[in-house]
Each structure stands twice: as structure tokens, then as C-alpha cells.
């Protein structure tokens, strides 16, 4: 019997929804039963509710067979980027560090405007670890209680708690104990522990923890709105949010860790594109992918031909890039052979703040279906300004007065209005930045603005538009997986390296199982290990040992 998953992906311009039958993923239509696209509403909860109603109505499924609902939203990152003081809370940074790290205080790398809104003060307390896991100093309970009272006296209710090398604290868990003491002293404090947020790297982890703490109030408000919508829709299944790395987080955890959902827009599009094109699926889906081929003879494929199993296999050996064109931006990302987006190396900036956690490497360009076209006597420019979700009111093709990229494409060949090359040159920039060699790449083209690419792209062997490409973001959310993640430093002296790595993999697997995975279905997607320099003993860092599972909350 069929089992279903519903997803909604909310972008700055459009809201997309989809229903998939997880028992039919290898069918020609990839299990997709219904999709829906509508302009994003100012009240995102209303937009979600209407989108789900629409796909439920068009698919006519039995709602009791719905396993889960997944929502992808940029609401949280927009709150930070807009630096709206009404939606952000002041945060006190409490660093467990003993006598160390005082030279670079918290908030040091924040933009001036954002720091003015968020900086609620700093406390340096006893605690923290050195790189091999030994304590710098023990926690001082009286010191912690006094700090909690001082924070309350200053009128601040939110705390970012950061211990030096806290991701290595597997035994005492200083941050958790410090949080307990603070809440015993002042029960209404909201405390975010950094070991829940990011990996090793104190400043970047601290920055991310502060940002997360500042939007806790927004996270809980959004959670309640989503839950009310689920109740009105009579859906009693689990509710998840998409995470930055393409996996799922349940709504309760997401409301406490909203920063883990910041980059879901590009991620959902990338994973959806890979799924629809059978990249990293271990099987091809005949007749499931349609597209055009650049730079190939007509005998290889026709403009509306079928990408066969052989094509899918060859794709996995080539450079695979996903180009997602929305209403405001074009996002370009490279896919790994597993079908997951290539992760960004090093550090990432969010709202001008340097952070470090698992996110895909994405190049964003100011080109979308709603990008405005500006004409003058000597030049034509496209974007980065966009009419966004007002395209159906403002674009000329819909009777408006603003010339957009969509108008140019619609008119191409029918009237002397603009030059499509002015538009399709722009995605080339992002494609070139994401390629790792000069060899030609295969591009999976998705998004509602994909019609902007009307011609060949330089350096691209194939340009494939999968079926349901306009809803790839929603489909990517629907096929999301739960995961486990380990980030640790291990001293190898007197130990077996393979046994240490196996233990890390088991821990990642256990985490995935705790979140609803079936142990037999979990696979380790990635293990990164590296030697650490300047240590007196042979030491390795193990990062991002991830266990994924395809689907959760199974029913008979």
C-alpha cells in the first residue's frame, strides 16, 4: 500500500509543494503525485497551509497514509540578514575558558550594526578543555550562579554558552552542567550550548551560537505557527524542517537550533535535482529525465529526448552541476557521486558573521525570473534587482510595467525585444566558479526560472531538465533523510586507528537511529580524518562522520 510524504519549500519569490509516494520512487514519474507553485505570502504559515491543501486536493490521497510533512524556509536567515531589532534578542556570551582566549572577545567579528543589536555582554568563567580533552579548570558553581544573576539584573534573557574545545567533552559535558546550574538559579533564562551548534573552532562556533540564540524567540513562534497549520489540516504525522546539509530535523529540535535550517533553499533544489535525475540513487529511472544536450550531435539525443540509464551512469562519472534558477537568484552547486551537494570548505559568512558548520558550497548570482531588465542608450543590464513574488503583477507579460528577464524570454522569436544571450551569459559565471577542471560538465537545470536558459552554455556538455524540475526544491525536501554526525579529536598512542574510526561511525549511526532511522538502512556517507600538528602525541581529527537513512517513520 502507498505511503506518502508531503513537503513545502518557501522561497523569497515562490512557495512550492509536493507529494511523493515513497513506494514508487523508481517509477518513471519518481513517485511524484502532485506539485504546486504559488507566490510566497507575507504570512508564510498561511502560504504553507494553502499549498498543502492544494496538493492534497489534487492528489486525493488518504491522509492517514501520510508519513511526514517537511518544510523548508528561509524565514530564520532573513530575520538576521534584515537585522530587524524587533525580531532579534540581545545575547550574553558566556565563555568557559579559564585564563585563556580573553584577547579576542565574543562579538569581535560582527558587523557594527548587528553587534549593536545583539551584544548583551560577555562573561569569562572557569572551565574549558585543551586539545587532548583535559580540563583547563573545573567549573566554579558559585561563579556560574553569580553570572546568571548578573545577566538577569542586566535585563537579558538569552545566553550563548561556549566552552573551549567543548565538542571533545564526551564525559563531563561542562556546557550541559553549566546550563543546568544557570537554569537552577534563573529558570526563565534561555541557554544555547555551543556543542549542539558547530564543530571545533571556538570563534566560529561561538559566532554561530550567538546567532542561534538571537533568533530563539522567532524559532519558537514559527514552530507554533506550523503546528497550528498542521492541526487545521488534520495532519497528525511528524513535522520536520530541512537542514543546511539536506537532512531533516524535527520541529521541536529545529525551534531550539534554527541556525541549522539557514541554507535550505539551494540544498533542497540540489538534492531534488539529483533525485529526479537518478544521480547517486544506485539505479536509473528510465523515462524519468528529459532534457537538452549542448554541444552534441542530433543523433546523441533530441531536444526533448529521454535520458537513459546509461546517461545517468555517465553523469555520475562526470562533473555534475546543479543550476537552480528562482525568481530572484540563480544558485549553482556541485554534486558528489553520492548525489549530495559538495560541502563548503573552511568558514562561511552568515549576515556578515564568520561561522563554521556543515553547509553546501553554493555560488549565488542575482538572476531570476523576476530580475529587472534596465535599458539605456548604450547598455542593457539584468538584475540583481527583482520584482520577486510580485512578478505576476509587475512583469510586462502579465500586464505590468516592469521589464523582467521572463519578458525577454517570452518575447524571444516573437518580437524584437532584447537578446536572450544577455540573460544566459550570467549562469556561465557561476558554472565556471563551481567546476573543478576545464573539462565539460553536465548541468541539471531546475527551478521556475529555468526557461531563462534558451541556448547552449559554454563548457557544458549536457544541460538536462529533469521532469518536475520546476518543483525540484519541494521534492528535495520530501526525500530528506535523518542523519548522525560526529566531530572529535582522538589520541592514537596505544590505540588502533581503525577501531577509533569504527567507533565514530557507530556513534553517527546510533544518532541516526535515535532520530528514527532503521539501523539496517543507515549508511556512512562521509568520513574525514586528518593528522593534527604541534601535538606531543600522534593525534587525528575526525569530522563529519555521517550516517544517513532514506526514509523515516515507516508504517506497515
UniProtKB/TrEMBL annotation:
Which ranges of the sequence are coiled-coil?
none
Short name of any one Pfam family annotated for the protein: Hydantoinase_A
Which residue numbers delimit the Hydantoinase A/oxoprolinase domain? 303-414
**Domain Hydantoinase/oxoprolinase N-terminal positions:** 5-185
Please give the superkingdom of this protein's source.
Eukaryota
Q: Which GO molecular function entries does the Swiss-Prot or TrEMBL record give? A: hydrolase activity
The name under which this protein is listed is Hydantoinase/oxoprolinase
